[in-house]
Amino acid sequence: MAISAKQAYGALNSKVASINAGIASWAVDDVNKTITATTKDGQTLVMHFTQPSDGVSVTSVDLVNSHVIVTFSDNTTHDAGTLPSTKVEVGTTQTVAPDRDAEVTEEPTAEGIKLNFKIPRGESGSGGALSRSLNVTQEVGGLKPGDSYSAETGIEKILHDMLDPVMYPTFTAPSANLAATGAKLLETGATLSTTMTVTFNRGAITPDYGTSGYRAGAAEDYSLNGGTAQASNTFSVVVDETQKTYQAAVSYAAGEQPKDSTGGDYSTPLAAGSVNTNTITYEFVDALWANTAAIGTVAKLALVSKSAKQKDLAFPAQTVANPEVFDVPASWTVSAVQVKNDLSGQYEDAAAQFTVTDTTHDDAAGNSVAYKRYTFNLGYGTGSRTVRVKWS
Asked: Apex CA 74: angle with CA 72 and CA 79, to 5°?
């Protein structure tokens, strides 16, 4: 190679013609992308600028304080270094800026020597690298303030970090749910035939980044209350007071290897294991009784959980012959009997309006259960009203 491309760029500019005493004149042809140097002995050097692969070309070369400044068509500039004061001759190599050396070929022509060259612009993947360390001060894409890169870091890496940073998935653990048909509140002595179904959620890898998206492997078997494992996720159960609480477990296979956004391994697969479901608990209670539906008939009411702690009884109008009556299981401790004041909307104490006696009722299995009967005792009729009973 006869001369460094960067030295050629500097010598081609008319502003530095005086530095090289052997050059008589310069001619720039922007149409044909050539610069012709005519020497004092009449010879010519025709220099052809090839189009770079990235489509960016040289638009001007200037000498600023002895530095060769190259301007590209994308408005970026490069300091190619200082121009030597000695004459540049064919057959020698003088490097101005090694990091910007061009690929130069030469060939003799009828006009003189033809030089074909292009300057690599440091594209990523083609040797482009930082000339000095970089400390990120602004958030740009995947780059955050505080990130830093040392000198010689490849531009490709920085572009990937900025535009396509490595992303990592988040994990959702596997879980399972137990559901059952039928009511969960049952009368003392009752039984319930029901089907319990286990739903297994394999968890998630989010985003999936090429995986199935499941954190756990497939379910392998199911068990209920620690019983024998089975392949089916449904159980036929007869519920009674001897077994009020149910919980299932699911055993699952190991999960697959999670990946990051580049397809690389991230973390570790979830090991084979098991997960428990929620718990279903049945409550067995004795029913309340009252003559709320028909003032002349005491009847069983809809079941009320003992944990509710109170029940409002809407009585129809009563008479002396058919007063208000309600029965509470003797095992429940009544803490208050109140009547709603329709004018104020408040409930007022009315325990003294009722006489308490003993009675019994059969439960769902036909067993006799002790009750406390509350009977209105004022000896006159009243209109319809609401009585609130509280217990502990």
From this structure: 35
